[in-house]
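3.2 Worked example (two chains)
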Amino acid sequence: MFVNNKVAAGIVLLNVALLAYVYYYFQLQNRSSSRVVVASRTHSEEGEADEWDDYSYYTSPINWPQKVAELHNTTTAIIRFKSLTKKKYWSTQRAKVGQAELTRPDLNLSSLPPALYEMAKPVFDLLPNSYLPGYKSPCWRVKPRMVLRCLPYFYLLGMPKSGTTDLWAKIMRHPQVKYTIKEPHWWSRSRFGRGKLRIYASRSKRMVETFALHPSLKPRLVIGDGSASTFWDNKKWKIWDGERYEGPTYVTADVIHAAQPDAKLLVILRNPVDRLYSDYLYFNPKLHVNTSVDLFHIEVVAVINRFNKCLKTMSFRGCVYSISEIQDPRVYCRLLIGVYSVYVRDWFRAYPRDQLKIMRLEDWHVNCTGILPEIFDFLNLERIWNKQIERFCTERLENGNKAKLHSIGEMLPKTRKLLENFYARSNKELSLLLGDEKYLWRS
């Protein structure tokens, strides 16, 4: 008993000494750019433990009695010290939160073009006139209980089998990004059925619970949406436009822009030929569709023929968006998803270009440690130590497809040549749009 009392007393003294050191250290550094990170483990209302979050970022001078009191409201706490004066640990100086993210302009939904308003009337009718100030994420209170809910701060767009799952997993490692399920497919699919805005906005629940415990995190924490279909899937457009020669008047990009004009958009693309084959193998498991290199070639020829037939009555853009009619519903051979230039042009029409960060999977694979900090900067998130970036990038690749590729082998050379010719026009337009010949994907 006596020994236990001694141990307990020693622990108390160590904690007192630690707090004294912290106070003294930051008094001496009150004019330097020092950083304290408070990581805490909280519990949700349901009693389930939340994950560790690298929560708060303070610069001296600090009201330590207040901060210590805050720590007593959490289950446990760890204090780590990181001085920004040690430049070797940081890739560049810290990114800062812009004022535009904390005080957003009014949405002006009542002045939308009638055709655009009709496309998403159930969404626009439930959105506020403006989002709450002081939050990094677009948040508002939902009636009648005035529950706080938030939309995604950023969208990870792109294409299936283009690295979105791996990129999402690494973005989720940032302490300011609150975890959510990657692909709700809400904007492009679920909202047309029973997917109410209230349900979609409830994805922010864990972040909102954190705000209740740590109000100072409102201008820092965000959630995202990693649904790749948001970028390209507009299958419902003929409900509003009919058989319009030029294709849809408005697309998902226009709807999201009306709801979130300052959203951050990440796009990752892949050589469209390789993307198509990987997509074919992934979504056509042998148990359901007898896949082979010969059957793949036959399906590619069939889709291209149906596309060329469509061009007799519709524009190139109109046929690209008519994927439902051109693709065989029994087989996943989504060739038109790889016509990137059409989709990129429509997103550029809706959003300023500086709100989209477009990258290639091929570059991501060889330069994750260089691209990931750029992504965090683009999202205005705090910079991560270089060693942490390296650790994130060396983790296992998410959602790879090599086993299925090896089971039937590479596509036939004649298939690759056929696809390269088909995508040549789109790749050229894309490289001109982006000012980068890498998007020609020359062999």
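3.2.1 Second chain
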Amino acid sequence: MRYLCNTPKKPSDRSHKVRLAIGNGIRADVWRDFISRFGNVEIRELYGATEGNFALLNYSGKIGAIGRDTFLNKRFFPHAVIKYNVERGEPVRDSSGFCIEADKGVLVPVL
């Protein structure tokens, strides 16, 4: 989508039959530019890696959602998002040595 948005604009940009686009994550600014230029195309994103055991999906079409669990992930791959100390390069642990689960909805800074 980024490449399409970087091509020269044409009056016919909205003359297409595309209704759904699926692919790897897209930056929010590119998503907005794409919709503004090419019209109301539904976009679904995938976030995952070959070395991971599950992927996240943005199936809601919300710009910037990054991804959500699916019922299959929750059922077959129990997991949690944990707090991580970037400066020390290690998970944050409680007094028993267990990782501390991150609070839902809290933004984590990326350094």
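3.3 Remarks
The mean pLDDT is 84.
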